[in-house]
Amino acid sequence: MRILGLDVCKNSVVGWLINTEENLPKNFREYFRKHRRPKDNDPLTFKAHIAGINALLELKPDAIILEPTGIHYSWIWAHICSMENIEVRWVGHAEVKHFRKQNKLPDKNDQADAAALALYAFIHWHNDEFFLHFNAGNVARLRELWLQLQSINRIQSPPINRIRQQLAKEFPEAALSATKPGDDGMVPLWAWLAGRERNTVRKSSYYDRLYAKSIAPKYRVGISDFTRTLANLLCDLRDWENKMVAEILELLDAPEFMPYRKVMTQFGIGDRQQALFISQIYPITKFESLGRFKRRLGMAKDEESSGDKEAYKTGGSRFCRSQLYLWVFNRIAPHHARPKNETGQKLGDFYDQRKSQFQDNPELWKQKALSRTQKKAMDELRRSLKESLLPMLPKDQQPQIEAILNLTLQNMQLSLDQSLAGKTSSVKEKEIKRGFGNLIISQTAAYGLRLMFKELKRAID
């Protein structure tokens, strides 16, 4: 057999080809040193275009070996090789890393990564348990469908707003009607306006009766073609959305996702959110630390410091971060919505404990808010003064002036602390509540991810 290990980059792959008929030495480190190639003009680096694909296929591999990291970049290579009847096997990140270290292969080296994949597959070829079994296309498709659903939701907002404006004069009694979908997945008002037949168990003539009593037709104001066309558009978008959701549910039923779904269901996470999170973290074996896991789901803290300015911002996927916020807001914050299990109890207790800290001592939180705002202003002033004053002075005078400047700013800080003491009554409580409400939700989401990481690792192991 000809086994080709592929280390995937953003727009290329680096390969390492071995033939099972070769007598490979036991010392893989020496083997790699002897056969490693120059990085420039590497004949086994293939770009993601026709020429690169053809060059890879000319090697006539019987199998390619991949890691499921960067799944959206590796999908096209796996797909093409599958179409060309080349077997595709996947190896977990942790297994490859352990194999590379065990055999003392270089780290942070694309060729070494590719060699580790090929050699690992060569050694364990007849043991299926050493390989991951999943369809990489399922993971990529889940994320693609989730993003498409977000696009459809954004597309629907302008027509909905416009229809409500139209109905204010054409059917005012229905202008502010709820737009909750029925059991057939259609929104009753849009279907009625569009004249669509609905596939429901219970037929309803609610809007027929409401329109018969409306003041609009009484005074010869009809429903315009413009309104009905927009309603038709919304029905089409709703049909499209329903098809996507059905495909998402079908993909989520794949056996490899079952342990993930079971854990996330215990956390009260819905199907659509599960689709997004699984598309980001599958397989969990590629995460060796909680930090990387949290970053992937949008809850990492990235430092953005320069000079005397120290700052942090939340990093990672903003899509995941917003969905985690909604999850806590809708399922953990309200007592009645919390999952009725041990996980729901832990998350609820954590949220309540953080919330009580604010409610029991609001003046303390106001003071903290003032202090943060004050510190931010002082840091900005310090940075601005140093950038504007110090470069204008001779270098031998700069340390002395900087020391004087720091002392002056420290005295200003002390004066501010004294003047602000006991003056929290001027702070708007609504703004404080909103700020610390978001903080509590963020802290609960981070705590939830810590619990989820442990549960997922336990479920997969």
From TrEMBL:
Pfam families linked to this entry: Transposase_20 (PF02371)
Domain Transposase IS116/IS110/IS902 C-terminal: 261-332
Transmembrane segments: none
InterPro entries for this protein: Transpos_IS110, Transposase_20
Name of the protein in its database record: Transposase
Organism: Calothrix parietina FACHB-288
